[in-house]
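Quick start: what a row looks like.
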Amino acid sequence: MRITFLSIFPESFSSFLDYPVIRRAIKNGIVSFEIIDIRDYADGCFRAVDDSPYGGGAGLLLRVDTLTNALNSAKTDRARTILMGPKGKKFSQGIAHELAKEEHIILVAGHYEGVDERARAYVDDELSIGDYVLTGGESAAMIVAEAVTRLLDGALRGSAAKEESFENGILEHPQYTHPALFDGKRVPDVLLSGDRKKIECFNEIEALKETIRLRPDLLTCDREFNYCSLHKSYGNEAKIIRWMKKRLPVPEILYDDESYLLLSKERGRALKDSTKNRILKTSAMILKAFWAMDISDCPCSENIEMTIRKLKKKRLSYSEWTALSEIEKTNFNEDYVFSHGNLTLSNIIINGNGLVMLTGMQKAGVADCYRDIATLLPSLEEAGFTREEFFVLLGLKIDENKIQFFQRLNSLTY
């Protein structure tokens, strides 16, 4: 890779080129650097690179003519030109990975008050390293160059770059070295155990805890990791898992706060990937187990009245409000049992020995028995089963009105 810096202060980069990682990458032929002094392309004996803004205002702007002359001298057929400036998209590890695939990048270090607006038409991108003010773009250009260089094959030893903060969209896990005991604080025992899998699991969980605590903005959606799963805005799930713990297999809560829930991830497969006979029997067995539970101390209610009340707090479209109004007119006696709330074949995890765990219980609680039937039937029918054969196993008579009612209600809640 070739990286070119355009600057009016080329001497700023001398110490950067002497960084150990950068120096080694240059020595090994992984990357080459070129520093171009924008002043060399200024016209006139005074080599003017800047001037006052038209219309008045404080500071000086880099001239578009001088800057484009310098750019044209640096450009190659496959060069990607980037202006370092406050109007650019925020630099990230993802962008660093993108740039590491380029053959040649040109980093333009803005200075003074900025650049003539017309100069932006001559670059491919603009990047910012954060929402603060610097005197010039030299330090920003060096940050981008270092982040990109570290990702090039051979720049770092081993897999160092793969285990650092932001590589997986989260912060890096806490790390420790000698001494094992200092000022009464001990290195976690698992890190001294030599058990590689336990250490990997521990590090993943600790990295997620750090991210939840320090940089929750990095966690934009529910995610699966190697050893655990992360849920955002998880509703009833934490309460239900604690209540269910001695009743049916559920994930272990590894960490939870007001906004996030970190759960253990057991090895197994979704029931939808099993044999047809097992799918039907396991589904019926789980529903019967739900219906046999003592719900007198269940911490969450998801009956029709409660569900409608929650829906009214959501931002619904006109058609959804109309559907909800029709649902409110329906009246029947509810047969209360424990309800999963989103029971599908994908939320039932099994292995060769049987049921491993139930997942996705954000909307679990006390509700009518047909609530789970309504969510489970579509995935059973997709797997090739009829309603009749499923209801025979359940020992129930099919109530189409209830099925349709809860399917309409569920369509508004998920």
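That is the whole record. The chain has three domains: 2-160, 185-264, 269-413. The chain has a mean pLDDT of 92.
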